[in-house]
Design a protein that fits this description.
This protein is an alpha+beta fold. It is built from 8 helices and 13 strands. It has 2 domains: 157 residues, Aminopeptidase, CATH 3.40.630.30; 141 residues, Gcn5-related N-acetyltransferase (GNAT) (Aminopeptidase), CATH 3.40.630. 30% of the residues lie in helices and 32% in strands. Strand 2 and strand 3 form a beta hairpin. Helix 1 packs across helix 2. The longest helix has 20 residues.
Length: 310
């Protein structure tokens, strides 16, 4: 018999298995154990078991989803997983319907599905989420389920990735000038909100500044998200490129400064035995896509956020 109920602690091992089963249908099996799943999802202080819904068939979990309330009466469905059986596919449809009912009862008017780089729910870094590209376009089962439930595409997101071990930055006149006349300095990250800190505590986030040799006025900044080895959610061999930017007085120098800083950080990662650096970018953000392509990043995946008015 099919039942939809809130999460209970005894579900944890099975829900981690469902995560692996679900994603293994369209990609290599993610390296996620029950302990990793618990660190990423169930150990957050904001975790609400009543918003992690579990579908069971004859008392065995076959599907689950988790949603969060956001600002402006928008809710977010961060994850939905189900196994490969016909019963699980039926259960997943009922689960999505029940989730919408619960979200509407909480006063939300819109439901958005997927994790992106602005999400702060603990999923980022959990394989295969990375920084977040929404629902992977390769996940045919979930895309079909959501479309049949009335969800529509809101945004396309690409995953860009570079290998650090054999990285050789492009040589340019600007790069030579920066190499001779600048230095790179790590700085502390400004304090974040308690909720953001709780969602990101499994990362070691570092900010780097590109500074002129004789000045402390930054030419560019870039953030790196590294895995905290004591809180194993993301592999210690992977990293994420966070926000980057420039407020240099010379507007024309801003983009070359950002590119030089990022290209200089990649060999530093290689020295720490971090093999890949990746970044999620909206498909229509042509400026950042051009930057990453110039830095020898490759587009390695694509996904989309979907939404529905309730």
């Amino acid at each position: 018999m099919l039942e939809i109920r809130p999460f209970s602690n005894s579900d944890l091992p099975r829900l981690a298995v469902l995560w692996v089963i679900h994603h293994s249908v369209h990609r290599a099996a993610p390296a996620v154990t029950p302990a990793i799943w618990e660190q990423a999802i169930a150990s957050r202080h904001f975790f609400n078991p009543h918003r992690l819904l579990v579908a069971t068939q004859n008392s065995v979990p076959v599907a689950w989803c988790q949603w969060f309330a956001g600002a402006n009466r928008v809710a977010y469905l961060a994850a939905i997983c189900f196994d490969t059986s016909h019963e699980a596919e039926i259960a997943a449809k009922v689960l999505v319907a029940e989730c919408q009912t619960q979200v509407a009862a909480a006063g939300m008017t819109t439901l958005v599905v997927g994790v992106n780089k602005e999400s702060r729910w603990g999923y980022q870094g959990l394989e295969p989420i990375g920084q977040g590209i929404g629902v992977d376009v390769a996940d045919d089962r979930l895309n079909q389920l959501l479309e049949e439930a009335g969800f529509e595409e809101q945004q396309r997101i690409d995953r860009w990735e570079v290998t650090t071990t054999d990285y050789r930055p492009a040589i340019s006149r600007e790069a030579l000038v920066y190499r001779r006349g600048t230095r790179i300095e790590p700085v502390s990250i400004p304090a974040s909100t308690p909720a953001e800190s709780a969602a990101m505590f499994h990362f070691d986030i570092r900010r780097y500044r590109l500074l002129p040799t004789l000045s402390n006025e930054p030419l560019a900044t870039a953030d790196l998200w590294l895995s905290d080895p004591d809180i194993h959610v993301m592999s210690t061999h992977q990293s994420i490129l966070g926000a980057s930017g420039s407020e240099a007085a010379d507007v024309q120098a801003r983009e070359p400064a950002i590119r030089y800083l990022i290209s200089s950080l990649i060999p530093i990662l290689a020295g720490k035995h971090i093999h890949t650096l990746h970044r999620s970018v909206a498909t229509d953000d042509h400026d950042e896509a051009t930057r990453l392509a110039a830095l020898k990043f490759r587009r390695t995946g694509a996904g989309r956020l979907l939404k529905k008015k309730l």
